[in-house]
Amino acid sequence: MTILPFVFGVLGLSIMGAIRSARNGKASPLAPRRYDESVLLEIRVPKANELLPLAAEQMFASLHGLLRADPEHQEHISFEIAADSSGIHFYVWCPKHLQEFVEGQIYAQYPSAELKPVEHDYMQADLSGLATCGGSLVLSKDSFFPTKTFRDFEVDPLAAVTGSMSEVEEGERIWLQILVRPVPDVWQAAGHKYVQEVKSGVKKMSLGLSDIASGVAEELGSFIPHAVKQFTNPASVAAPAKPSPPPKQEFPRLSPGQELELKMIEDKLTRVGFETVVRIFTAALDPENCRELLRGTGASFRQFSSASLNSFTQIAATEGIAEFKEKVVKREFPANSYVMDTAELASIFHLPNISVQTPAIAWATYKKGEPPANLPTSDCTYFAQTTFRERFVKFGIKRADRRQHMYLVGKTGTGKTTVFKNMIVQDMQNGEGVAVLDPHGDLVKELLDFVPAERVNDVVYFDPSDTERPIGLNLLELQDTSQKNLLASGLLDAFKKHFIDISWGPRLEYLLNNAILTLLEVPGTTLLGITRLLSDKNYQKYIVYKLKDPVLKEFWEKEYTMMMSNPRLHTEAIAPIQNKVGRFLASSTIRNIVGQRTSSLDLDAIMNEGKILLINLSKGKIGEDNANLLGSLMISRINFSAMQRVNIPETERRDFYLYADEFQNFASGSFASILSEARKYRLNLHLTHQYTAQLPESMRDAVFGNVGTMVLFSVGAPDAQILEKEFLPYFTAEDLISLDKYHIYLKLLVDGMTSKPFSAISLAPPEGRTYQGQAAVAHSRDVCGRDAVEVEEKIRRWSERAFSLGMAIAEEKGEAVIEPVPDGQEKPAAVPSPQEDEEA
C-alpha cells in the first residue's frame, strides 16, 4: 500500500504531460541537431528602408516551405541580433545547403538588403576576463495563445529591442538568438478544441498554466479514488449506472473582451507556425552589468505581453553558463520549445526601417542595384564588377558603345583614375590609339610602365617641362587653308575660356579672331606672331601683304589702321591680348613648344595610325594657367584633326580614345559641339572631374545630354541634388553621397541603349607592368624632341628680325632679302628669308 501514492503521482504527472503536449500541438521532441557545414550571413538594409514588419511576416511564411515530411531531418534557422562596441548587427544562420533558398526569401521581401557571408563568427570572440550571463524567453501559456504583434503597436516594436541593446560599452556584448524551424499544421488542433470548449461552456477562459493544472487536478481528484477502490476491493465497485440523457446545453454568454480574445486565438491559428527558441547571452567586465544587460534585453520583450492571452517570461539558464554558451554558439535546437506564428516572429525579428532611430545600427552604407541582363562580360573593355547581392561579375563596355563617350564624376580619391588606368592599359595592350591628358602627371608616368614592349615606338610622351628636348607643336600649322575658320574657332574658344581675369567683349573677340585667321593664311607663322602682329607695324605690313583674303586685308588696312591712329583706343583694344597671350608665350618652356614653325607632333598620324600620346600637363612644373591653356589648345587641335577625317570613309576611320582627367580645366565653349560631333569621326571621349559646379550650366547640360555612359562615384550634397535626377527612382541623393570608395553607380550604354542605373565596384589597379617606360620616353625624345639650343636660337633670330613690306615683296619675287638698317650703319649682306632660315 505504501507504494500506491508514488504510482498515482507518476501517473498524474504523465497525464498532465500528455495533456500539455496535445495542447501545444507538437510531435515528439527532436534531439538537438548540429550541422557540419553552415553559414552565417550579416544582413544590412539602407537607412532609408521603408519596409514594415509585414515584409518579415511574408518572409517567414515563405521560409515555412522548408518543412520536411520527416521531422527527424527538419533543419532549423537562427535569426540573430548582436550588439557590441562596433554597433548593432543583424544576422541569419542556416545550414550551408539552405543558403541560396534563405537568401532568396530575404531578398524577395527586402530587395535592397545586403547579405554578406561572415568569415569569422562573432560568437567565437574571446570572452576571457569577462563575466557572462544567459537565459531564455519562454511563453507563459500554451502556444495557441497569441502574444501582441506589430499590428498592435503604433511604433515599431523593434525600436525597444534595439534600444535596450544600444547601451553596450567597450568590451560588452549582447547576443539575441531566435531559433526557428517549421512545424506541420497540427499544432492548431489544441487551440481549435480550446476555442470550441469555451464557446460551448465546457470550460472557462484559460488564464494560464495554473488553470490547466487545476483542471488536471480536478480530473485526477475524481479518477484516483475510484481507481484505488477498484484496485483494493474490485467487488465493492458497483457497475456503472445507465447514463441519463444529457440536459439541453445552454451556451454561456461571453463578454466582448472574451469574444475578442477568442478571435485573436483563432486568428493565430490561421497562420503557419514555427517551433521557436529565444536565447539571450551577455558579457561584461562587471558581473552586475552583465546581469543588467540580460535583464534589460529580456525586459524589452514585455511589450509583447497580453495580460489575458500570452507573454514572454525570462528564465535563467538552468545548466552552467559555459554549457549554455556552447549551445548558443553551436545554434543547438533544444528539445523543449514553443510555437510562434509568422506574425509573432516578424514582431520580434525584422530588419530595421527608417522609423527605428536607435543609434549604432549597422546600416548598409548605400543601396545596391541590379545590373542589366545584357551586361557585357566579353569582347569589351573591362573596368568594374557588379556588387548586387554579393555577386561579383566582371564587366565592361563594348567598342561601339564607347563611341558615345564616357563621363565619370566624383570626389577626389574615390577611384576615378583607377578606372581610367584599367581602360587605358587594355587599350594599349589591344593596339588601340590613345591620348591621355593628365593635369597632375602621375597617371601618365605610371602608364609608361604598362606600355607593351612591341608598342614602345608608338609612344609619344609630351612633357612640356622637358626643357632639353622640346616637342614642336605649331597650333597654326595648316595644310588646307579652307579649314582656317574651323581651326580658328577652336583656338579662339580655348583662349576665351582662360581670359577669366579680363572682360571678354565683342571687340576683343573680333580682334583676336582676325589675328588668328590672318596668321593661319600665312605659312610658317606661329602663336608668337599674335602679339607682334598687333604691335609691330612693319611685321603687320609683312603679313598683310601675303594675305589673299580681301576681308582680312581690308580689316588691317582700314579698320585697324584707323584704330592705331587713336593711341588710347588702340592700347585698350590690344592690352588684354598682349597681357594674356603674352604672359602665356613669355614662358620659355611654352614658347619653345608653340614657337616652332614645323610641328614634330603629328596629331593626324597619331590618330590615324593608332599611336599612344601621353600628355603630362603637371601644374607643378609649368604652372596652372599654362597647363590649362595648353590643354585646351591640345583638345582643340585633336578635335580639329578628328574632323579632318571627313575625307576618310566612316568604316575606315580608326577608333581613337581620348582620356581627359579634370577635363573642366580644358573644356572650352565649343566642347558641346565636340561631344555631339566627335562620335562621327571615331574620337571617343572619356572625361572625369570632381564636382558639377566646375562646369558651366550649358556645358553640364551638354555632357548629360550627349554622353552614353555615366559613372558616378561618391559626391557631395550639392552634386547629389543635381545628379539624383539622372538616377531616380533607383537611387536617391542620400545613396549618391553614401557610396564607399571605389564603389559606383552607373548608367551603361549597352548596344546603343542606356541601361537602368545599377551599382558596381571598380576593378583593382592593373597588373603586369612591362617596365618599358624609359625606353618609350627615350624613343619619343629622339623622334619628336628637338634640341632646345637650336630651337631657342631660331626663335631669337625671328624675334630680332626686322620685318618689312619690302621683305614680303622680295620673298614673293624670290629675291634675296635685305634687312633695313639704321642710318650710319654699314649695309649688311643679304640674309635668308624666314622660310630659308627654318630649313637651315
UniProtKB/TrEMBL annotation:
Domain Helicase HerA central: residue ranges: 403-634
Superkingdom field: Bacteria
Region (Disordered): 815-840
Domain DUF8128 as annotated: residue spans: 34-363
A Pfam cross-reference name: DUF87
Protein name: DUF87 domain-containing protein
